[in-house]
Amino acid sequence: MVRQSVPFLICIIYLNVRLGAAEPAPQVSATQPGVRLTLVAEHPDLATPTGIDVDDKGRVWVVATHTHMRPDDYEGPSHDEILVFDTSQVQTSQRQVFYNSTTATMDLELGADGWVYLAERDRILRIKDLDGNGTADVEEELVVLTTEADYPHNGLSGLSWHPDGDLVFGLGENFATPWTLAGTDGPAIHGAAQGGIFRCSADGKNLRWIAQGLWNPFGTCVREDGEIFAADNDPGERPPCRLLHIIEGGEYGYRRQYGPESHHPFVCWNGELPGTLPMVHPTGEAPCGVVPLGRGLLVPSWGDHRIDFLQLHPKGASFTAELTTIAKGGRYFRPTCIAQDPNVGGSKRTWYLADWVDGRYNAHGFGRLWKLEIDLNQADWVGPLSIEPPTKAAQRAANLRSGKTLLAREELLQLAGDKDSFLARSALVALSRTANQWEIKDVLEWSAEDRVQATMALEFCQADSNKWLPLFLKDKNQAVRFQALRWIANSDLKAFLPNVETLLNGSEISFTSFEAAMATWNTLQGKPEAGIRDVDVLLARVQDKSKTPRLRAYALRLLPAQSSAAGEADSLPAKKFPNGLTLQLLSELHAVNHEELSLEVTRAAAGNPQVAQELLLEIANNQDHSAKLRAEAIAGLAAIAASHLKTLLKLTKDEQRVVREEALRSLRSIPLSAEQKEELLELTKRYPESYDQIVVVLEPESLKSDRPAFTDTKAWLQLLEQVQSPADIENGSRVFHHTQLGTCSHCHRHNGRGNTVGPDLTLQSQRASREALLMSILEPNREIAPEFQPRTLLLKDGRIFTGIRLRSYTKEQIRDAHGQTRTFDKGDVELIRDSNVSFMPAGLVNTLTNREIRDLLEFLLNNDDSDAHLNKRDVNSIKTSKNY
């Protein structure tokens, strides 16, 4: 086969290859200087390739999979092929079949003494050519995965070598099916529900589980200094895919058993939960490999058709990264695994990439092999080649994990709450070594913060749950109870179901604890995937008159208000009550005459105001109700304000300031007659404290006057400090959830209410300063966190859709600005581009008064409902959490 080159920004490859009657040849271009791609081989010489490596003779070893979801009419070998390409040939790469006896072969790594290591979905083996005839004639089984699951690419994969000679590999989430992993010696490891990273010796001994909480780490690598990295695929509803820094004892937050919902109290994706670790940086969609380059990493993206370079920068005991795309292809460029040629040095570097070609998961007969060359004299984007020495924090964390540094328990407990989550996790690992020696009477004397850390350390060391969990479930601090519930659910400890039911029915439980207890209860009932959204269970609790009004209110809050199925483009999703929740039931709940329950009734009614308008009107007009409840009802009427103008104008004269001002807020953008405007103007004399709310109804453009530039955050802070009245968190909450003004809850969740397009803002006070939060409101496009960057799809019929990418295969799937999932056939998509425009609307402050902006900030910074995440470190940098 003739090789073809792709120099920087010049050539685009148009291969005379037919993938099908209407399928074009691939398009691949370099996007950075010093980058060159060369086609080495393609179908029919290889098909659907995965694992790849290069030997000291420059020969490329690659797995050609013929068994990956093999169609009935597939024409090809009955087993996968281990192919060797001799790239020294000038015109044609000589192809040799080294082995063809495996199935669902996911990776390949060359070892010492002629051994070739392979990862099948359910075992790791090594093969060798003993007689020198060019084909393997001996096979040794090293690690065996025993499980009922058989999906090809969520089992074993991600082979790499540690400098000390150990084999590192990954295990996918395995559909949450229980599994047993056994090496060639020692006890087996048992697990379920999550992916992880493992290591063993080259002959399969000393197998151990070193990191957990992953989805599918299809690619791993180990630098020469022993730092381990993994390219972890995302679970669809929790984008993006992530680059992880793997440490011994690391916990990365994911649990497959809890289902596909984008929110679950015991699942996180970027270190949001105590004891979990954040990603280094998001990657492209479906990364299958990762290899070192200087102080960074090369990561191919199967779904985004590109190759990225992530420049690493030390941050405490871990790293951050900057992403640069160095090559970009079209629809039929789908790079999987990548391996460096060890024979090329100096100012040149060479890698080989396997290319799956087509977006179909099943074996389809197409595949390519690429050579990637980087000229370091031209590639100024690479940076220094030498690895930086570890930071003091990184060295300290490593010593804590290894046991080289021994600290007193008090010091370890303090470090376990450190803002550097990698240092904190390392301290937790060190704590767990002696946790089994702790006495209950001593732990009871510790501070609440220390008891939280103790709960996690005891779970990590698999301490006696019967000894400790009854104690923690009764702890006065709900952060401790939260961690106890998390322990029970993650380990599926069904014996504690009565304890959980007792807690779930407690009259003083907070919403956060209720949510956690609800998820735990569903898990112990054999329905972990139900999470907190089991409609039948929630409705039963709402209807159960034996439950306290507070518990019924919590259950009502968790009932979903809208479907995730997409409707018309650019239209708000239709909200409707779930089956069983009727106006009659809402009225009966309101008649219980309990403030907290009535508030949730009002908010539920506000989710469907057209249907529930009579109930909302009754609450708004009834002066026997609290001002807070009436204001919530008025806010609920805002979406249909034009239909109730007379009532709202009447309420602008209410003696209760909260009621009056909420009615005024609902009138914005509603056309008023001259007489109505005159009546409102007269109110400025009667209620001077409401002047700002009245004026903005009469003169909406006044909000743009006498204000600093959006880029001057400090001037805005000074402006807000001049607001005379005390901050009103409840007013800030209504602004946040307002359907016409703040509209924050269209994208964000807060204490169980709202949507999950952007980040959950319940714990925003622990993640960002007032200045950083205000900056993100003023300039939403200034720094869009990579995991929340929208993508715009132009369809061939001219329609345009924008959303956060969830999946990319033969279809494109996004979550739009309304939280709804939209799926498109790949063939219907003309163009996909990253959008530099945040979902958060620019100019939001021009719809709010200074007082409303101030109150919104106070709400976000001072209202998290609980201390369930007590002592949680600021694991998310401002860059990855503030803009959305």
TrEMBL record:
The segment(s) forming the Cytochrome c domain are: 727-864
Query: What are the UniProt keywords, alphabetically?
Result: Heme, Iron, Metal-binding
- InterPro entries to which the protein is assigned, alphabetical: 6-blade_b-propeller_TolB-like, ARM-like, ARM-type_fold, Cyt_c-like_dom, Cyt_c-like_dom_sf, DUF7133, Haem-bd_dom_put, Membrane-bound_put_N
Entry GO MF terms: electron transfer activity; heme binding; metal ion binding
Q: Does the keyword 4Fe-4S apply?
A: no
Report the Pfam families cross-referenced here: DUF7133
SUPFAM superfamilies, A to Z: ARM repeat (SSF48371), Cytochrome c (SSF46626), Soluble quinoprotein glucose dehydrogenase (SSF50952)
NCBIfam families recorded: CxxCH_TIGR02603, Piru_Ver_Nterm
Name listed for the protein in its UniProt record: Cytochrome c domain-containing protein
